[in-house]
Structures are given as C-alpha cells and as structure tokens.
Description:
Helices cover 24% and strands 19% of the residues. It contains 4 helices and 7 strands, in the order ααβββββββαα. The protein has a 4-stranded antiparallel β-sheet, with no helix packed on it. A 3-stranded mixed β-sheet has the order 2-3-7, with no helix packed on it.
Amino acid sequence: MPVHRRTVHRTHGEVIGVRAxxxxxxxxxxxxxxxxVTDRHLRHVAKDCLxxxxxxxxxxxxxxxxxxxxxxxxxxxxxxxxxxxxxDENGITLLAVHPRATGxxxxxxxxxxxxxxxxxxxxxxxxxxxxADPGDQLAARRRRHHKQGALxxxxxxxxxxxxxxGRRSPAVYxxxxxxxxxx
Length: 183
C-alpha cells in the first residue's frame, strides 16, 4: 500500500497519498438526522377517504380532505405518509402517516380518520360540515373545487383570486381588428 500511495495517478496526475489526505480533510461528519429516501406519487382521495397506492388502501382524515382531492404519497421502506398538495391555513400539509403494507389488497386504516363521514341515514356529504354554512371553510373549498375545476381551486388559494377581470362582448374585438361593423 505505501508504494501505491507514492505513485502518480494516471488519470488526474496527482500523487495518490496527497490526493487521499486532501479528500479526507474535505469530508464532513455524518449528520445526526438520517437522510430519508422516499418515493413521491400523486393520488386522488376516494369517497371513503382512502388513497390507493401500490394496490393497497391508506386512510386520510375525512375532515381535512374532500372527494377527488389530489394528495401526495411519500413512501419510504417502512412508512407511507400522505400530504395535501396545498397547505392548510396553518401551513401544514401532513394528513396521515401509516406503516407500509406488505403485499397487495390490504387496507391500512386509522378509525379516527372516518369520524366525520356520513353514517348513511341521510344524503349528507360529510357530517359536522353543513354545505349551506358559509363559514365552513372545507365546504367552501369543495364548492370552489367542483365549480371551477382544479386550476380554479389552486388560483382561489392565491392572491390572484381577488383580481377583477373585465368582460367584453366578442363584438368589441371585431371592431378593434376591423372585421366587424362599428356601431
């Protein structure tokens, strides 16, 4: 080994021992918090507040999501965490963390997540959330999402939602381009 450390490397042209000493001094200590490697996927929430991932179903809290909402699945080797794509009013995106299911066709459900789902005796969408209540933020988000689509839902959460846009009839554009009669 000492003979090899004195030789000049043919690729980078440096003495191997000198280069090794410099590289070792540049190394930093291993971080105390390990780096987590996760797969990230987007999925829709079903009516029963379950999210399908790798042929298994994982629950999310009924009071924090709505049907067809897009959520992000972050899967490590041991856990599956479900995150909202848009942070709530407190800036939190984490919805649920579950142990990763092995095999296929499994349901990983926290029974507390189903509190707030209708019990079936009415046509209610979610118990505890009256869609007619204007102060209900979750119901308002649902109405905007279904009425405007996903883009409208995201824009409604931004500052651009308050900008008024003027509307003109198509005849005005014909007049401007000179293709229509002036009145």
